[in-house]
Amino acid sequence: MQLDANIRRILAQTVNETVVHFPVKMDDGRIEMFTGYRVQHNNVLGPFKGGLRFHPSVQIEEVRALAAWMTWKTAIAGIPFGGAKG
After folding, report:
1. Could you tell me the CA-to-CA distances from 48 to 3, 26, 38, 79, 81 in Å, in that order?
2. Residue 46 and residue 57 in contact, taking contact as beta carbons nearer than 8 Å
3. Which of the following is catalytic: 25, 49, 73, 85?
4. Which of 11-15, 37-41, 49-53, 72-76 has the highest mean pLDDT?
5. 54, exposed or middle or buried, with CB in 10 Å at 0-12, 13-18, 19+?
6. Cys bridge to 46: 6, 59, 80, 83, which one at CB 3.0-4.6 A?
7. What backbone phi and psi angles, to 5 degrees, belong to 66?
């Protein structure tokens, strides 16, 4: 796909990334720490849209990629939303 270099630079960056660390008390009484991510990729077309992924091995790079995919999916479908994922 032929994209203007300026557009390519804009779409290569995320707008916001949030990383949280939180404790969860497990069934056996021990406390385990978990990490969560929320990436807001682009909101030029409208508010951020994107679901959540719950998996112990998810990494920020994967969440970034999925948020970018959501930006492209909504743009191609003509839906007035931006892309995000958590």
Report:
1. 22, 32, 11, 11, 6
2. no
3. 85
4. 37-41
5. exposed
6. 80
7. -65, -35
> What does the block give as tokens for 15?
């707008």
Q: Which two tokens stand for residue 66?
A: 């999925």
**Closest CA relative to residue 51, chosen from 34, 62, 41, 38:** 38
The total number of structural domains that make up the chain: 1
> Distance between CA atoms of 24 and 27, rounded to whole angstroms?
10
**CA-CA-CA-CA torsion sign (38, 41, 44, 49):** negative
Q: Which residue has the tokens 């969440």?
A: 63
- Residue 54 maps to which CATH number? 3.40.50.10860
26-36 pLDDT, tens digit per residue, is: 999 999 999 99
**Active-site annotation holds for 85:** yes
Task: Report the predicted TM-score, pTM, of the whole model to 2 decimal places.
Answer: 0.82
Q: State both tokens at 48.
A: 């951020």
